[in-house]
Amino acid sequence: MADPKGFLTHDRELPARRPVDVRIRDWREVYEDFPAPKLTKQAARCMDCGIPFCHNGCPLGNLVPEWNDLVYRHDWREAIERLHATNNFPEFTGRLCPAPCEAACVLGINSDPVAIKRVEVEIIDHAFAEGWVTPQPAARKTGKKVAVVGSGPAGLAAAQQLTRAGHDVVVFERADAIGGLLRYGIPEFKMEKRHIDRRLDQMRAEGTEFRTSVNVGVDISAAQLREEFDAVVLSGGATAWRDLAVAGRDLKGVHQAMEYLPPANKDFENSPINARGKHVVVIGGGDTGADCIGTAIRQGAASVTQLEIMPQPPAARPGSQPWPTFPILFKMESAHEELSDGGGDRVYAVSTTEFAGDADGNVRALRLVEVEGPQSGFKPIPGTEREIPAELVTLSMGFLGPEKGALLQDLGVEYDARGNVARDKTYMTNVDGVFVAGDMGRGQSLIVWAIAEGRAAASGVDRFLTGETALPYPIMPTARPLV
Ligand SMILES: Cc1cc2nc3c(=O)[nH]c(=O)nc-3n(C[C@H](O)[C@H](O)[C@H](O)COP(=O)(O)OP(=O)(O)OC[C@H]3O[C@@H](n4cnc5c(N)ncnc54)[C@H](O)[C@@H]3O)c2cc1C
Ligand code: SF4
């Protein structure tokens, strides 16, 4: 145990965010550095619980108390070994995960939880800085070939596990760069892309091959893929977005978040869909919406308003969401802080009824109405209709599941009741040798779940190809967050 009294003597502390007026002038990550003595104190707060609920909160089963202890003792080398034992990409989760481990931390019952995510990211950044993240090529090759379709966290985790197990792995990606939503969904100010690039360098050196700008099912047929490869992992994400069927939806300036964010991620300043000088309305109160807010503010929007149909969540755990569940709370992400500092608004319990346009077919305004809660089916409240200026609207209302295009049709995969690609407990679909991992099989989820699924699916593929496997299997496909 790091320090038997650490949780009594030190408060939870996180690094400061850079001042709003400074950080909105660039696209770099928002956090200041965290001095080493402060991190040691945070690691010291871990109680090394007999039953560490943090393990259960994390789909990867991260060995949190072990690395807290190692960081407290300044044994960084062993800390990264223990961290990498369960997580291929802690630099992604350490920056981007909403940290269900912290929601489940025992200290959180009557105090603030251990700053697990901060400790995680410091361990991996330290390891990269020291040159300890080196390629780990397979000791021997199996001669088996695996195609991974989609290069998000699920595909990358599966590819790294399978390459290290000795298979020849090719990752196909239809975009022009590798990374899935890490690359073109999540903005630079949440995670700088250099973190993806240096991990890809390691993967290339291990022998994973990457082919970009290949839309599998179109540029290469499902039959060709099956002919050329001994096994296939589908990790194409849940990219079919939910739309908003109201009058004026087809006006110019109304875009899906995933039409707005990718070009902004490619060219920060001169994206073809640009918020500069415009009144922006972001529909949807989740993480994707927050990413649109931060992007629009950095592009120089005249104003930003976020709309959410659900009522405002509570600031602290309500009795209905007890420890160790992952609570839905009112969050103040960096983008929300930038929004309120700039006079912008987060408006809850409202529904968009219509977009109004100008003579040239551009969106000009958005009409909304206040609504009752979900129990009433979001019944409109008469007399609350109003109009707000809207010259750029982004729709971030969630995703419906995988795109059921040529690839899935030609393969003949079956779907589960929610419309995701169905799989057995080895992550294999109904098609022999074709596996599925990440959002494509689970539905819209989180990076940490995608990595866990990629690792687990890799063990299924390895067993399919060789008859046995030593690869870890962190989660069943049916595992779900504790709610
Ligand atoms: C804007 C946004 C912000 C988010 N922020 C967070 C966050 O902060 N923290 C968090 O934990 N989660 C976040 N999420 C969710 C998280 O990004 C996803 O759960 C995760 O990326 C899913 O990983 P995946 O590998 O299954 O799929 P994806 O990351 O979606 O990757 C799938 C890839 O497959 C490719 N592809 C699809 N079909 C084909 C084909 N036929 N041929 C070739 N390539 C194909 C796609 O181009 C894509 O690159 C966010 C999601 C969005 C949309
Ligand atoms: S639950 Fe919290 S206090 Fe207990 S071992 Fe995990 S991180 Fe440490």
UniProtKB/TrEMBL annotation:
PROSITE patterns (UniProt xref): 4FE4S_FER_2
Descriptive protein name: Glutamate synthase subunit beta
Keywords: Amino-acid biosynthesis, Glutamate biosynthesis, Oxidoreductase
PANTHER family: GLUTAMATE SYNTHASE [NADPH] SMALL CHAIN
Domain 4Fe-4S ferredoxin-type: 37-68
Family matches, as Pfam families: Fer4_20, Pyr_redox_2
Matching SUPFAM superfamilies: alpha-helical ferredoxin (SSF46548), Nucleotide-binding domain (SSF51971)
InterPro entries xref list: 4Fe4S_Fe-S-bd, DPD_II, FAD/NAD-bd_sf, FAD/NAD-binding_dom, Glut_synth_ssu1, Glutamate_Synthase, Helical_ferredxn
